[in-house]
Amino acid sequence: MFFLSEQKHANNDNTAAAHSTSSANRQNRILLFAAKNLIVRCNLPLNIVESAGFRDFMKDCCFKYEPISAKKLKRDILPSFMNNVSKTTHEALNKINYLSLTIDGWSDRRCRSFLGIT
């Protein structure tokens, strides 16, 4: 009898662990989505994740969303995203035989230099 109740608790622990892992994966996907679409594509600042409006919006979209700091986003999420982009880029470049690049350099009125590559 003790074994059955112990087994039942073990199954509940495994289910809770699986749910926790699933929840953590979902949280990571949400954070990668925010990094990719809001910060990279929309050129929004990292500290947007700390604003009340963003946090309220995310809670409305996903009630299990756990807010993070801009520091954690910069330290953990963006490097992961950059590694994925870098890996995908390297894989694509390894499959081609030829590559043409156009490079243009310029500076703005504040004498900041820019280099564009297409």
TrEMBL record:
It comes from the Eukaryota. This is DUF659 domain-containing protein. It comes from Rotaria magnacalcarata.
